[in-house]
Fold each of these.
Amino acid sequence: MATLSRFQKIALISLGAVGGSLAYYQIGKNEKKFDVQNAWTTNYKPSVKWDRNWDHSEPQSIVKPPKTSSPEEQNTYNEKLEKAKSKAVRHVLLVRHGQYNTSGETDLDKTLTELGKKQADLTGKRLAQLNLNWDHIIKSTMTRAQETGDIILKHLPETVDVKHCQLIEEGAPVPPEPPVGHWRPEPRQFFQDSARIEAAFRRYFFRAPPDQTSDSYTLLVCHANVIRFFVCKALQFPPEAWLRMSLNHGSITWISILPNGNVVLRLLGDTGHMDPQYISSR
Ligand SMILES: *[C@@H]1O[C@H](CO)[C@@H](O)[C@H](O)[C@H]1NC(C)=O
């Protein structure tokens, strides 16, 4: 069998773990393709295929193919492909701000409640316990996210790089399907916010660049609509499905982007680190 990358090996091992299921492996002519199918899925046609080049970083889409089939050109091409490959995992963790005073008139008045501060504190403790090697912490510029981020930062190493970002402020990503009666922003709101939140997605979601040698952990402290939309986009689910999910205050959502561009949702709106009396979503 041809040489397998670390992740292909993991894929094989996990297939084995499924236990007893008949599987066959196809290794493409030049190892570009690696398709694994269980026998029972052979005749199953997916309704939507995974877009492998969603972040426009597939080596085959970056490196120009050789003009001739000469072994020299093929070798050069293969070397360039290898150099263009991602080698590390990018973990993106998303925390929703804590509960806040919804009676506030302006954003500055919409400060965290006592419960909201407690939630941020518990989540900060939890993130510290996970003991991850943070590269950046990015806080939405809205007051409730800034406050939540500041409380979380008290628990993390002082050396962590902190950034502020307006792109991840709360908003209306796309009209939800099904529509809901109590939340109907003006079409103009969607028109403005959808482009901004899409830009935020492109800023923070991509596979590790080839020169990144170790796994990285990025923390975004932001908002429920933004996080839910990101989850749909990252998993290539219909984006209009975002409002079918609910996220608790201070909850942790964890998405991992693998070197081959595959995306894994590890946690969605997790508040398992909070005693039930501290859990709220509105
Ligand atoms: C919430 O905001 C309103 C309006 O600004 C204010 O009157 C009220 O005191 C605030 N409540 C708390 C608990 O801060």
Amino acid sequence: MQTIIEPFRIKSVEPIYFNTVEERTALLKEAHHNLFLLKAKDVLIDLLTDSGTSAMSSAQWAGIMKGDESYAGSESYFHFEEKIQTITGMPYVIPTHQGRAAEKILFSILGGKNKYVLSNTLFDTTRANIEYSGAQGIDLLCDEGKDTSLVANFKGNLNIQALQEQINVLGSENITMVVLTVTNNSGGGQPVSMANIRAVRAICKAHNILFYLDACRFAENAYFIKTREDGYADKSILTIAQEMFSYADGCTMSAKKDAFANMGGFLALRDEALTKQCRNLLVITEGFPTYGGLAGRDLEAIAIGLDEIMEESYLHYRIRSMEYLCNKLHDADVPVMRPAGGHAVYLDAKKFLPHIPVHEYPGQALACALYLHGGIRSVEIGSFMFGKYNVFGNLIPATHELVRLAIPRRVYTQSHIDYVAEVILEVFQQKEKIKGLQIIEEAELLRHFTAKLIQLN
Ligand SMILES: *Cc1c(COP(=O)(O)O)cnc(C)c1O
């Protein structure tokens, strides 16, 4: 087979500033062993997130110049609206400044006390918006999805039997909606099958429950359906995406993911009365209905990005890049989550650093080691991010200790990815030298963004 090449060439570049292990040692100390506190210029390869970090195309930059900044009735809005209507089949489109703003509007109206939202896995901002409204979120991930090393096609699926049981227990009248996150971000970027979407739809319909998609990575999910699910190999990504959305009553989306934009999001719906309520709230919190929280140029860049994300040569390269890194690490016995997800590769820090107990944060220790050794910035998804304390002040650990390497879209080339793999392998060879960490200062909520740590000896 021939090498799968990047389906783009480079017109404009940004420099990477090289630094040494000694310099990074000092920088890491200054940042209190918290990679969120580093300056981006001190990072060589930044795999902190795939959100808003995509490289825009020349067509998108041209669209930025063409953006219509009219307060009302902007041409760029109509371009944006038409594109989203075509993909989702949903008549009502509400632009927001990012995904969480769409969630905030939706759950301010549909959430509230004694209500439940069921999901394969709610993303953290979605869960936060649900809980902030007084409602509760419940994750019902399929069993395959819970096993980090099991290779299966659709590890993002919702457990249909558990959904049925929860509906019986809670009562359909208390369930605000079911949300399927595609792909399942918090579950490793694993896809949801069309069969699962259809089954969720059927149950929701039978019980008169709303069904929404959290569609941030709809194109990556559609590509997995095309390549892994029977009957879809010959269908276009657009056709598959249209079928996915056809089962849903509405969707929220962050354009910072599968729209190649640096900022933006939207809410799309089929219900006219609910749309009216959402637009009333939009005007107070975001802006007029034809721009929401965005500039005309953002709307234009998103409309163009939504077309580009569905190009098969792009998705082929995108999904293959994740597999490439994942396989390289797996072949060298590095513990990774398998199979590769759509937007990231996850290291299993508990297995990588068995000598570091969970209360010394092996994931964070590994993330720091990757920065020290090779200037790579990743993010811990484990007890540093999600850990809580019991009444005695002891850590209640998270279920997994992972380090996520999220790959920005169209930003890094194969040699960057090769370098990342080399650094991880070198760190793996001297893993016994890595030491645990202790938190010395932390905020009550979302502590991982600001907490300070020290290295233990
Ligand atoms: C990023 C993300 C969101 C929130 O979007 P923002 O644009 O960051 O506000 C919601 N759901 C999922 C699955 C995401 O990945």
